[in-house]
Amino acid sequence: MPTDTPYVVAHLAVSLDGKTDGFPLDRSRFHQLVGTTWHEDATLAGSDTVLSQEPTLIHGAGPRDPGPLLAVVDGRARVTRWEELRAAGHWSEVLALHCRATPPRPPGRHVPELVVGDDQVDLAAALRAIGRRPGVAVVRVVSGGRLVGRLLAGGLIDEVSLLVHPVMGMGARTWWGEAPPPSRSLQLIDSDTFRGGLVWLRYRVA
Ligand SMILES: NC(=O)c1ccc[n+]([C@@H]2O[C@H](COP(=O)([O-])OP(=O)(O)OC[C@H]3O[C@@H](n4cnc5c(N)ncnc54)[C@H](OP(=O)(O)O)[C@@H]3O)[C@@H](O)[C@H]2O)c1
Asked: What are the Cα distances from residue 162, in Å, to 17, 28, 30?
């Protein structure tokens, strides 16, 4: 892990077989752990996660101040509801992460953007830039696995946090995404159990 990047944690709800979809999540416990554990300064989100969750985010109470930055890896410029995301009540500001191959943005779009990488967003460069922002020490990754997999492959994740649900997932996604399953050793740093058979596992990525 380069020293000029922030502490990066990926927190995912998973089934016993490592899936991130196709089972009922305990959202309340998932978000309670988010709110009490890392106190992120920035949220790094996959575009597919943002697009799938936009419908539940659009009735926000306005930007959260102080609150974390929302940075979305959006190399194809598919995310459009930036103002609504900023006003969702979870973040103070938004940042679009693009690459040089990103299609032209609509004229008049007022979204801060960072262009890093040629064909895809350069995740290491993006994290370095986010980490250089004042007050950003901790970044939480929000993804169903594909972004997590790319970050793991690049050695860019410090901690993997899995809230394991006692079911087999019926979905297609695993928490390590489309990259090969993690070969790096994971060192257990904490664990806990909760009502309903949930097990929380926190691993440091070696
Ligand atoms: N169980 C959980 O904890 C949990 C958490 C969050 C979301 N979810 C669910 O998971 C689903 C979405 O997750 P997902 O895993 O399909 O997608 P995702 O991780 O949200 O999005 C994929 C991201 O990976 C980026 N990416 C892929 N390859 C890359 C590369 N080589 N270099 C740089 N960036 C790359 C994509 O960028 P581009 O846009 O530039 O292609 C995109 O931002 C939704 O259904 C959501 O509800 C579950």
From this structure: 12, 15, 10
Nearest residue by C-alpha to atom 39 in ligand 1? 74
Per-residue pLDDT tens digits for 8-56? 999 999 999 999 999 999 999 999 999 999 999 999 999 999 999 988 8
Rounded to whole angstroms, how far apart are CA atoms 51 and 112? 18
C-alpha of residue 86 to centroid of ligand 1, in Å: 19
pLDDT tens profile 110-167:
999 999 999 999 999 999 999 999 999 999 999 999 999 999 999 999 999 999 999 9
- Topology of domain 1-38+149-206, CATH: Dihydrofolate Reductase, subunit A (3.40.430)
Task: Enumerate residues 6+ apart whose C-beta is below 8 A from 14.
Answer: 20, 162, 163, 164, 165, 169, 175
**Residue 150 and residue 167: Cα distance in Å, rounded?**
26
Locus of tokens 């943002």: 50
State if residue 11 touches ligand 1 by the CB under 6 angstroms criterion.
no
Query: What ranges do the domains of the chain cover?
Result: 1-38+149-206, 42-136
